[in-house]
Write a structure and sequence with these properties.
The protein is an alpha/beta fold. It has two domains: 42 residues; 162 residues, Glutaredoxin. It is 38% helix and 13% strand. It is built from seven helices and seven strands, in the order H-H-E-E-E-H-H-E-H-E-H-E-E-H. The radius of gyration is 23 Å and the shape is globular.
């Protein structure tokens, strides 16, 4: 009799666990769908125009886990300093970075006029806490030497504000890059979900190809060759 009671109790507990797991699954699925919808909205032209981030929050708030980067710390620049004037350049179908104003790690103002310095701009988004990002920094010297006559090289240091580790890495490996702090308009079209992420833009800020996600090492030269052939 005691064994029957124990068995019934175990069955009852198992049913309760199944019910709880079902509720958690429904809630999780709903939340995941909401995040996915918000991310798609943020990447649409309507989402960007409305100034939405990947979480569906206003751009003057920090973005969250959906882009999988930590300690994103950047300032929102007032709208009056931005300009989204139409450009005669070809839209390659991957979006455009326009109207941003930020500073480099030395405190100098930088805006999208930086794209006009060369035919292309190679933009590398990284963070000091990202080991794959750090590991390939020494390789960029050779890439710069091979392409700097036609390509400008820029990094966006996602955790670069008041970060001695970022200053040290830039001094050691990236002194020939323009190293920027993140800013909402600068990131709005890129929407990096993972780091490192790399984009290549033309002289008007149009992305020439899709985002390049992950460390690519020697493959970066192939991407730059392809991008140069696209713009002619």
């Amino acid at each position: 009799m005691n064994l029957q009671k124990v068995f019934r109790k175990q069955v009852s507990n198992a049913k309760i666990c199944m019910i709880i797991m079902g509720i958690i699954t429904v809630l999780f699925t709903g939340c995941a769908q909401e995040v996915r919808n918000s991310y798609e909205e943020a990447n649409s032209s309507e989402g960007v125009a409305a100034g939405r981030t990947a979480e569906g929050t206003d751009n003057n708030e920090e973005t969250g886990d959906v882009i999988d980067i930590e300690d994103l710390d950047y300032e929102t620049i007032p709208d009056e300093v931005h300009s989204d004037e139409a450009s005669p350049m070809e839209d390659h179908g991957y979006g455009r970075i326009a109207g941003f104003l930020t500073t480099d790690l030395q405190g100098n103002d930088v805006d999208n006029d930086i794209f006009e310095q060369r035919e292309l701009t190679f933009i590398y988004l990284w963070a000091t806490w990202c080991a794959p990002c750090r590991n390939q920094l020494p390789d960029f010297q050779e890439l710069y030497d091979d392409y700097n006559d036609r390509v400008s090289f820029v990094t966006v240091v996602l955790d670069g504000a008041d970060n001695p580790a970022a200053d040290d890495l830039v001094d050691e490996y990236l002194s020939f890059f323009t190293n920027l702090l993140p800013e909402d308009r600068l990131l709005s079209e890129i929407m990096p979900r993972y780091v490192p992420t790399t984009v290549i833009v033309d002289s008007e800020g149009y992305l020439v190809m899709d985002k390049i996600v992950g460390p690519r090492g020697s493959e970066y030269s192939q991407y730059l060759d392809e991008a140069l052939s696209i713009i002619g």
